[in-house]
Amino acid sequence: MATAEFLSPLNLLKQGIRAGTRAAVTGPLVAVAAATSVAEAVVAIPRLSRSLESLADSAESLPTVAADLERLATVAPALENLAEAIDDLRELAKVVPSLESLGESVVPLAETVESLKPLADTVAQMQAAIETLNATVSPLQGTAERLGRFVDRLPQGRRSRHDYNS
Questions:
Q1: Is the pTM of this model over 0.85?
Q2: Are 123 and 129 in contact (CB under 8 A)?
Q3: Is-contact 157 151, C-beta < 8 A?
Q4: Record's superkingdom (predicted)?
């Protein structure tokens, strides 16, 4: 047992020496690698700083961009409708000159309509007078026919056509 106890610290010492040797050999390599990484990181700091400044500038404009996007979202359906109606709009654009010349013709036509309103009122009044006259003359027509038959029955009541024409 004593030998095992003695060998055990010896084994520990051997293992420690091996580890130390390994550390002595690989330590500088690890240190060089770490120094290289640190140097690369130090070189990248100005680039990162510029990138962060650019991001900060962009971040300041985000509320404006968000508002613009919201406005675009609200008008998107209307824009889609316009896109669908583009052919119709082109056809309407072709017709516009004709409509403009037609508009120039409408003004005199409107003036003519205004001048014809008194004539329409007069015609309406005449129509009322004609209806009244018709209501008055219709019974007289029947009376005139009966009177004509009565005169025809009278002796010498018949007149010749010659008498009517003179």
A1: no
A2: no
A3: yes
A4: Bacteria
